[in-house]
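Weekly structure sync, notes
Attendees: PL (lead), two postdocs, one rotation student
Agenda item 3: pending single-chain targets
PL asked that the sequence for the first pending target be pasted directly into the notes so everyone works from the same version. It is reproduced below exactly as submitted, 111 residues in total.
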Amino acid sequence: MGANTAETALPDTLEKLTDHLTASYAGLLKPAVVREVVQDCYQPLSNARIAGYVPILVEHNSRARLRQLVRRPDPAAPLREESDGIRGHLVTAALRRLHIALTRSAPAPRP
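Predicted structure, written out during the meeting:
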């Protein structure tokens, strides 16, 4: 079977996302930091069975981490993953469930 078009388009999508986030956080964070955050968020999803949702998950996770980096009083402190309140918690929980569903191994075929 041919290459999955969503997988082949993903690097371009990540580049566009990185460029957009770099512009959004210009003056607040260095472009290298933004690129590193996007790559860190993409890494666990790089082998997802269904790649269609990967860019959305990467963007959501990247934005959350970048917001945390900008808000931190001590930039040297380790980054903690926290919810921004009840709505943020619900979105984060839904995205975690989606992430788990996308990264689970395929069920064994039935005989």
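Discussion points:
- Residues 5-24 form the longest helix (20 residues).
- The chain has four helices and no strands.
Action: rotation student to compare against the earlier draft before next sync.
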